[in-house]
Design goal:
Helix 2 runs parallel beside helix 6 and helix 5 packs antiparallel against helix 6. Strand 1, helix 3 and strand 2 form a beta-alpha-beta unit. The chain is of the alpha/beta class and 145 residues long. Strands 3-2-1-4 form a four-stranded mixed beta sheet, sandwiched between helices.
Length: 145
């Protein structure tokens, strides 16, 4: 079993997809989680690459958020598109990362991701509330590289 496959159980992956669905229920924003074995560049730079690879910039309000995890490298990053970054406080992503980091350190991988998703969802809900014509623009499934 690869590091990526062993990082979360099937049930935990389902819980994360459900957390994304719940977080997106009250917002037009979009959240994705991407897992891969390792990265040889800074995790935030890789998060931006994956964000673009997944075409997350194609949301109507530029309010996509990716949570990127390099499992073997033990690194992660959160990247928000232009629309959300213009709205949240400067330290928002770092404070969300701090919450997640404590869980990761304790081996609570699912909880780290769920808390990050819900935190991002709260900000998206505040700044981009759900509209009647909203559609789910991006898949909620965890992407893997």
């Amino acid at each position: 079993m690869s590091k990526v496959e062993a990082f979360l159980s099937k049930s935990e992956e389902e819980d994360i997809v459900e957390a994304i669905r719940l977080a997106e229920e009250n917002t037009s924003g979009e959240i994705r989680v991407h897992l891969e074995k390792e990265t040889s560049i800074a995790p935030i730079d890789r998060a931006v690459e994956v964000f673009n690879m997944l075409k997350m910039e194609n949301t109507k309000d530029r309010n996509g958020v990716i949570i990127y995890v390099a499992i073997k490298s033990k690194q992660f990053a959160i990247y928000g598109d232009k629309g959300i970054n213009e709205k949240v406080a400067d330290d928002f992503w770092n404070s969300t990362k701090d919450i997640m980091l404590n869980h990761f350190k304790n081996g609570e991988n699912k909880q780290a991701l769920v808390d990050g998703i819900l935190s991002a969802g709260q900000q998206l809900k505040h700044h981009f509330p759900h509209q009647d014509d909203d559609v789910n623009e991006l898949s909620n499934e965890i992407s893997k590289g």
